[in-house]
Design goal:
four-stranded antiparallel sheet; about 25% helix; about 190 residues; Dna Ligase, domain 1; alpha+beta; single chain; Glycoprotein, Type 4 Pilin
């Protein structure tokens, strides 16, 4: 995938914001319009929503099977409405909601000793079990390499030591950007 420009990042944040607003209103947004270049290339992404700093939703697509702009729109909607850990985002929350987008590199096989905390995200699989943690998770929780592997196994529904017993370990890098300085929706309370 081509590198993203500042304008590409701004457009992706706008696409995510519009998708979340439409989702909360019960509308289905159309496909993003007026995009070109890297945003039309197939790419994977995760959308992380926070309400006043607390996690509010995080959903993504790992495999690059659709244009990045569409992936971001769909993941933003899903993070707002369908993260099973949270109730759907409400209109009242929009003024305090921040969006973080993590654009993923393609997955690549990696040996445990090659994993760099803060640089690599992990995707561990075995049979029908799959688990993914973004690179920033290990940093936020101050995990070492072994703990990061164990937690990714647990996320996959595997035993924490499955990475030692044949589970496939793949990694990815991310380009991360956010709108932390701007609420999702402009409202009297946000002005």
């Amino acid at each position: 995938m081509s590198p993203l420009s500042d304008e590409d990042e701004r457009l992706l944040l706008e696409i995510a914001r519009r998708s979340i607003e439409a989702a909360v209103r019960g509308e289905r947004p159309g496909d993003p319009q007026g995009i070109s270049g890297a945003l039309l290339e197939k790419g994977g992404a995760f959308i992380t929503l926070r309400n006043q700093g607390s996690l509010r939703g995080c959903i993504g697509h790992v495999e690059p099977d659709e244009p990045l702009a569409r992936c971001v729109a769909e993941c933003a909607r899903a993070a707002a409405l369908h993260d099973p850990r949270f109730a759907p985002v409400t209109a009242a929350e929009l003024q305090n909601l921040s969006i973080q987008i993590s654009v993923l590199s393609p997955l690549f096989d990696i040996r445990p000793e090659e994993i760099k905390i803060g640089r690599h995200g992990l995707y561990i699989s075995s049979g029908f079990h799959r688990g993914l943690l973004l690179p920033q998770v290990a940093v936020e929780w101050n995990w070492d390499r072994e703990r990061f592997l164990e937690e990714t196994c647990a996320k996959a529904g595997l035993s924490p030591d499955a990475w030692r017993r044949g589970a496939r370990i793949r990694a990815f890098t991310t380009s991360i950007f956010a709108n932390d300085d701007r609420p999702v929706a402009d409202s009297p309370a946000a002005s």
